[in-house]
UniProtKB/TrEMBL annotation:
Enzyme Commission number: 1.4.3.5
The Pyridoxine 5'-phosphate oxidase dimerisation C-terminal domain, residue ranges: 156-196
Cofactor needs: FMN
Biological classification of the source: Bacteria, Pseudomonadati, Pseudomonadota, Gammaproteobacteria, Lysobacterales
Organism, as annotated: Tahibacter aquaticus
Keywords: Flavoprotein, FMN, Oxidoreductase
PROSITE patterns reported in the protein's UniProt record: PYRIDOX_OXIDASE
Binding site for FMN: 43-48, 58-59, 65, 89, 124-125, 169, 179
Molecular function via GO: FMN binding; pyridoxamine phosphate oxidase activity
InterPro entries associated with the record: Pyridox_Oxase, Pyridox_Oxase_CS, Pyridox_Oxase_N, Pyridoxamine_oxidase_dimer_C, Split_barrel_FMN-bd
Protein name: Pyridoxamine 5'-phosphate oxidase
A Pfam family per the record: PNPOx_N
Amino acid sequence: MSLCVPALEELRRLLAEAALSGDPEPTAMNLSTIDARGRPHSRIVLLKGVAEDGLRFFTNYTSAKGEELAAHAQVALCLHWKQLREGIQVRVEGTVSRLPEADSDAYFASRARGSQIGAWASLQSQTLPQREDFEARIAEVEARFAGCEVERPPHWGGYRVDPDLIEFWYGANFRLHERQRHELIDGQWRQRMLYP
Ligand SMILES: Cc1cc2nc3c(=O)[nH]c(=O)nc-3n(C[C@H](O)[C@H](O)[C@H](O)COP(=O)(O)O)c2cc1C
């Protein structure tokens, strides 16, 4: 894995700045995946860390996105902070792999108990015939783990995105926006500007 240290440092700086800017969801990012038929799908997930091994997010491995990621490991991520400076967008493309179990365990243990219960109770992406069915599953999981810690379900955990493209778009007056693209080409990170 080859990391683009300057781009990841810039991303961390922007995340910190976005958190201070009062953005209610500074880590919300669009995650695009491709299914086995080549059809793209997008949804928001939370960016849970920019680490040495890539960008992390957590989800249900048996969800629609989990199946899509098993079919195609290529993903595109997009973050947008409307109120930061003149507006900033970050695009990331790369390859996902599952995080080590110990990392998923550690993150799961840090989650609120309600979220832990939800990870067991939600059959994410499957048809829910009626709301009461979900509530009954939540009650069943709460009873199962009453008085003890909720362990991580085997179907729930993290992915890391190993980027091969990171692009920063900085908004500016009169549409003189700035685009800085970092691309991994033949094992080397290269930087160039693009017309906005
Ligand atoms: C602000 C926001 C944050 C979200 N964060 C996550 C997340 O971190 N992980 C997750 O699995 N779903 C998250 N979701 C729900 C997803 O957008 C999506 O509905 C769910 O993961 C099912 O997607 P799928 O059927 O394509 O697998 C979030 C939704 C919103 C609006």
